[in-house]
Design goal:
The chain is an alpha/beta fold. The chain is 35% helix and 22% strand. The chain has 13 helices and 15 strands. Strands 7-8-9-10-11-12-13 form a seven-stranded parallel β-sheet. Strands 3-2-1-4-14-15 form a six-stranded mixed β-sheet, with no helix packed on it. The protein binds N-(iminomethyl)-L-glutamic acid (NIG) and fe (iii) ion.
């Protein structure tokens, strides 16, 4: 079954040989892009979808999200908006609610958020555990996450749970031992909240232990790094060959040099800075140093409860001096790089047919019209 998508006023491909095309068409065959070119040269196909003079972009790749949770932290948010700083301490309340929730409740919340993302143009999403923090609750979170995405991340080292507060070493041993053993079969990635600036999170030595164990169990690595302070997370991520260092809000020259000299993507999460009233990461410094930059939502009930990649893209443009084209690349191809995916984030021949339609003549409207719900994933009915 092939589908011709036509009526595309502007097609952003992120394929270097194609670039951005005007008056374009695209053929999808068996879930993959089979042909891209000018509308006037489009071949026949089994069915035809006319997007009516709108822009088409690669679906957003949201490479950082925490979607398996229960409960609500609106009161914590309100306190923060009254001046209370974010330090990760509120994670404990989500852990309590998540442990108490049924599988069906967690599944319904998770699927609802994934649907909310798709309705806003996100076609690939990474989902972390990290609100269970027992062997069974972490494995459960990852089993549920694997129902909706192959990009599942073991984050048993999100915070030290209250029952281990006086025995941090024992908790790290649990994460690196029985918890990892139970979770690895359901996870592609291992992650850690490396943040010596938070009493709840993990220091550099603890993070190294967690990441090393994760890699020994066959998982690839990503790191919550340098969110609250310029700690050791970014350099550790680069040293261990992690796919991504996420947050990168507080960076030293040595951190930027390490990123520029390595293969680790810097994933910026500007919704967090917006939602915690924190200074934004210096995207220009990273881009100018030649670092690959991704944008993601970090959708979670504490530090940033948005599911909108378009909102984060607009923040990156308005607050972080990224151009609209750079921000769109980072929200699609950059996210793909952060997940080491070569089949998404672009629309060249052979790519997954993950198309998003912008209800405007150009992708520029994503930043030009912030907060307006312009973008949705295109449903091709290909099953
Ligand atoms: O990426 N920084 C740590 N973890 C999440 C926040 C989780 C929460 O507050 O519930 C983050 O910002
Ligand atoms: Fe996060």
């Amino acid at each position: 079954m092939s589908t011709l998508v036509t009526g595309i006023a502007e097609l952003v491909t992120h394929d270097p040989s194609l670039g951005t095309l005007s008056d374009a068409a695209l053929v999808v065959d068996d879930g993959r892009v089979a042909w891209v070119g000018s509308a006037s040269a489009a071949p026949a196909a089994d069915e035809r979808i006319d997007v009516g003079g709108r822009a088409v972009i690669p679906g957003f790749v949201d490479s950082h999200a925490h979607l398996v949770f229960a409960g609500d932290r609106a009161a914590e948010f309100e306190a923060r908006m009254s001046g209370v700083a974010y330090d990760g301490g509120g994670i404990a309340s989500t852990v309590a609610a998540t442990r108490a929730a049924s599988d069906d409740d967690l599944r319904a919340r998770l699927r609802g958020l994934v649907a909310e993302m798709r309705a806003q143009g996100t076609t690939t999403v990474e989902v972390k555990s990290g609100y269970g923090l027992t062997v069974d609750d972490e494995a459960r979170a990852l089993r549920l996450a694997a129902e909706v995405t192959p990009e599942t991340t073991f984050l048993g080292a999100h915070v030290v749970p209250a029952e281990y507060a006086e025995r941090r070493d024992a908790y790290v041993d649990l994460v690196c031992g029985p918890m990892l053993t139970a979770c690895a079969p359901h996870a592609r990635w291992a992650d850690v909240f490396c943040e010596p600036g938070s009493a709840h999170a993990f220091d550099g030595d603890e993070a190294r232990a967690v990441l090393t164990a994760g890699r020994a169990a066959g998982l690839d690595l990503r790191v919550h790094a340098n969110q609250l302070t310029a700690g050791p997370g970014v350099r550790l991520a680069v040293e261990l060959g992690a796919a991504s260092a996420d947050h990168c809000t507080h960076l030293t020259d040595a951190d930027v040099d390490a990123l520029a000299g390595g293969t680790t993507v810097a994933t910026l999460l500007p919704g967090v800075e917006f939602s915690t009233r924190s200074p934004y990461p210096d995207a220009r410094r990273l881009l100018d140093a030649g670092v690959t930059v991704a944008l993601a939502t970090d959708c979670n009930p504490g530090s940033c409860f948005t599911s909108s990649m378009a909102f984060c893209l607009a923040l990156a443009v308005h607050e972080m001096a990224m151009t609209p084209a750079e921000a769109l690349w980072s929200a699609t191809a950059g996210g793909a790089a952060a997940l080491r995916r070569t089949d998404v984030g672009y629309l060249g021949v052979g790519a997954r047919a993950d198309l998003a339609v912008v209800d405007a003549p150009s992708y520029r409207h994503l930043a030009y019209r912030p907060g307006v719900p312009l973008v949705r994933a295109l449903e091709l009915g290909l099953g």
